[in-house]
Amino acid sequence: MIDVLRYFHPVLAAWRLGAYPELRGGRGALGAQDVAVGLAVAALWVAPYLVSPALPRGEPFDPDLLGAAGRPAWLTLRLIGFVAVSPLVEELFVRSFLHRAAEAWPGWRDFARLPVGHAQRVAFVVTLAWFTFSHVPWEWWVAAPTGALFNLWLYRRGRLASVWLAHATANGAIAALVLLGPWELSAFL
Predict the structure, then answer these.
(1) Cα 24–Cα 4–Cα 34 angle in degrees, nearest 5
(2) pLDDT tens digits for 41-64?
(3) What is the pTM of this model?
């Protein structure tokens, strides 16, 4: 089996040495509020599809894509990507880099010195559009309010880690509904 921690070690070491300052600081401790926002986002994301099963959705996720023997490994990799990697990468790109880049442009003020989570109208619209349209078309109408909520949560908390935790919680709750619930939601995973 591949030693997964070996691949994450450089990232964790860099973080411990002060890299990714956008994941530090902010107002209040990480925790219950961030998780509550994530659960609200998960409800926002799936509730319309539970209420109206006729709404369009993507192809269902096939946990047996690698065969029955590969099912546990495939589900594990999919869940790690869906719950841990995807929210972290999306938030680092969208609400750290893209948000500050939109604020710095035009003129490209000192990008690195711009604070993460500074409320700015152009940056809000740019990140909202990117977040919405980076999802598949049948998700746009729930991705847009989700992106707006994540932007507002970043402004309130002043910390990217809070948004990452909310995003990871939302994805984890959706994954739990898909895997444990009797509903036909497998297209969300």
Answers:
(1) 30
(2) 999 998 888 888 788 877 777 777
(3) 0.81
